[in-house]
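Repro case for the chain-ordering regression, as requested:
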Amino acid sequence: MELPDRTAAACVRAAVTAPSMHNTQPWLFRLGTDRIEIITDPRRALAVVDPDGRAMHLSLGAAVCNLRLALAAAGWTSRLAGPGLVLLGPQREPSDGMLVLASAIGHRRTNRGPYTATPVGEDVLDALRVAAAGPDVRLTVLDPLRRSAVLALTQAADDRQRGDPAYRCELARWTDADGNRRDGVTARTFGPRAATAALPLRDFGLTLPLAERTAARFERHPLLVVLHSRRDTPDAWVAAGRALQRVLLTATVHGLATQPMTQALEVPDFRRYLEDPDGRWHPQMILRVGHAQPAPAGPRRDIRDMVLREPDQRPLPRSTAFPRTTLAGAGR
Ligand SMILES: Cc1cc2nc3c(=O)[nH]c(=O)nc-3n(C[C@H](O)[C@H](O)[C@H](O)COP(=O)(O)O)c2cc1C
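-- result from build under test --
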């Protein structure tokens, strides 16, 4: 049982399309004959917004989810033997459900544009809840009262971050006006700036001149969902990241746009407000969900810079796109 290099490369390529805070892409891959392990890359940590590495572990989980779906789509079963350790199993036809999710991997992106007033159906919201659900993870759709509270907290957190020179400095390090980089948030994906202060979205253009940015009106009453986990440990963050990615891919399958809005989770005092009063469920992600014009894809690094090879191993083939042909017929 040995995974061909081309399949391994394609699956790693699928893994790195996962979301990561500020698009740091904080992943390293160890490839073995019967396993692929993903570990976090501490050189890509965000000391100001993510001092505990919680967001980094969420993106590890999201990448693991993509990796396993891509393996499944390529005909390989797998099992998790550790937070980032994926062991290959026997080859087998994937289920239709897995194929459909895998087919969404290359289409998912963070959409920072305005969302339309078209409502999201209850059946789709149910599908998102089911996608998240595990014994220790759950997704809640916020009612109008909670939404107002979360938006107010997000606004307060955003104001605090904007006023913090260390935050601005870190954001500037991970944003790119010229689009020459293969990581960070590039100007193409900043999205328009809000014409009115209706929605407290993170402004990636904060440290750049306003002149070249278009302005748009954003919805005043966004649909927000919150992902909670029962525990608040690194392993629980990785599990929440896997659930997050299932939710994002399910939303993509249903033609929905999504955007994380996590400022309130990055200020410890504010994050505490979003815990259940009994402290049993910890907030891991706040997502804005809705219908929108398609958004451009963010850049990705060359996987050969992310794969740790043993000295006796051949280099991986040049980075190929995630093989949609493998997924042909999966539909969307
Ligand atoms: C834990 C986490 C927090 C994030 N927070 C925000 C946020 O507050 N605002 C935002 O616009 N995007 C946020 N993102 C999205 C990333 O910026 C995005 O995944 C990255 O730029 C790559 O782009 P893509 O999702 O389109 O592939 C977050 C992503 C993660 C994993």
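Ordering looks correct now. The two ends are 31 Å apart (CA to CA).
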